[in-house]
Amino acid sequence: MTSPPSHLWLNALLQALQFVQSTWLGALYALGITDDSHGAPAWPWAQRIAGENLVIDVALARQFAWMLAAIAFAIVCLLLALCWRRAWRWLTAAAIGALVLSPWPSPTLWLTAAVPTSFHSSPTGFTVDSIARGSRIYSAQCAACHGADGRGEGPLAATLRRWPPTMASALLSRRADGELFWHVLYGMRDDQGVTMPGFVGRLSDREVWAALDYMRVLSASAGMAAGGSWPVPIALPSVAVKCAGRPDRPLDAWRGHQRVRVVAVDAAHPPPFEDPRFLTLLIRRDDGQATGPATASVRKVATVAAPGNVTPLFGTRADCVADARDAWPVFAQIAGASAAGLAGTEWLADRDGWLRALAPAGRRGWADGGLMCTTSTSLQDGDTASARDPLTATLREMDNDPVRFVKGGFVH
């Protein structure tokens, strides 16, 4: 019998640490021991447990887990010693022995600096509208230093004492959302002075969160330009969905239940046929963005499934459309493509709402692969059905290798 992969216990450990710290913060706030900051409970200490460090160093994570196990064992022994007087000596000795034999990694390795908003989460919901708003804020306030492409080479970057970091890496994901929010508002500094100015008084809280939403999309775009893949998993942006003959629903309604395929359609790339393995969501260029005589036909093809789109062999063409004019440019940036060349591109999102695979326009669909952010890409032995159907193989890889959660980072 083989032991489970290390990421399983590591993922459980990191989620437990996040839950304990968040619950502890909620209890302190309920008791009036800590105040609020920017509308949520404020973390009262200068440090927190650094899940992002544990995920990088698995050996450190093992030592930390053994340390916690030894502390828990010692506490149980001491509690039993209070109730079982006859064995108190043995129980006390066992507690001391566990603490002595346990590895005690240096606190500097598993603790990191914290700010009052370290455990805050974005209220925007990572929507298409929020990303589009963040794009405008970023262009006006951030691009001069960080660059329009997010690579840290803006026109003012050379005037700074330290060059801004590139977003074409996992750096953005290695920081907790609330800490990024804090640093944008209040800036950053080191022993020699300010390394990034703050925007408090210039941007509202919601504008900062929107800018951070856009930076995640920009990170995906920069990663595509630099290496042809996303540096970290990116969530499927939320949007209102209109389906012919059915009530409008938010895209989040499918999260946790159904995979989603997103397809960019136009007159030359009609909607694909429905597939029971996932919801097919169509995106199209808004009338104000598209030009030329093809615009009217795009609206007709992408909005409803006309009777001519139903065949006895394939069934009905997909008819669920993203009801947001900014969906096209947002998904174009995620794909690292121009808006003009996006039609025909497809994305796959897993049941948890993470975009996992991309089939760019002009390629042979899923026959060329396209799975992003994975740790295992080989098919199972004897999986001949998947070998014959590249899309099935991609879906199975997504299901078998899910995104692992880390507050401030991901295993991938």
From TrEMBL:
Domain Cytochrome c: 129-219
Organism encoding this protein: Pandoraea aquatica
GO terms assigned for molecular function: electron transfer activity; heme binding; iron ion binding
Keywords: Electron transport, Heme, Iron, Membrane, Metal-binding, Transmembrane, Transmembrane helix, Transport
UniProt name for this protein: Cytochrome C
Record field: transmembrane: 64-84, 91-113
InterPro entries: Cyt_c-like_dom, Cyt_c-like_dom_sf, Cyt_C_IC, Cytochrome_c-type_DH
Domain of life: Bacteria
